[in-house]
Amino acid sequence: MSASKFELIAAIRNTIDKLKKGSPYQWGHMGSCNCGNLAQELIHLSKAEIHRFAMEKSGDWNDQLIDYCPDSGYPMDLMISKMLEKGLTINELRHLEKLSDPKILKNIPFPKRDHLKKNNLSDVLLYFETWLEMLENQWLEESVKLDAIMLQKNNLDKVFA
Q1: How far, in Å, CA of 161 to CA of 155, rounded?
Q2: pLDDT per position in the chain (161 positions), as tens?
Q3: What is the pTM of this model?
């Protein structure tokens, strides 16, 4: 797993911690919604800066992700580009805003999985925590695989030395 995924894991963990400690959450505010709170941690902008940049184009996060153009020069598109550089995908961001990623949802038990509300902080936290656990598990699996490959390589080096 790349360093950007590690940075994403840290940003999600920090987002969870801040939201649990009372950081502003408002789904209708571009800087303090689901994506906005993650953006604060991932690209180190304030909620006010994120909101101000987002207001230079029309629509919510989902609309702006649909219209995303890395070469537009709009600050919102630059922010999205920075988030993509940190290991996110457009689809992950779109799903985050609506709490709708099937891979994450399948790890949330019934009946809660079918009743997440995109503007409910406890549901947002559950989604973030589930996503974080999945990313950490993926990180561990890839680390174990890499260790096994390195061990094999070292053994082969000894055989042919």
Answers
A1: 10
A2: 467 789 999 999 999 999 999 999 999 999 999 999 999 999 999 999 999 999 999 999 999 999 999 999 999 999 999 999 999 999 999 999 999 999 999 999 999 999 999 999 999 999 999 999 999 999 888 876 665 566 666 666 666 76
A3: 0.88
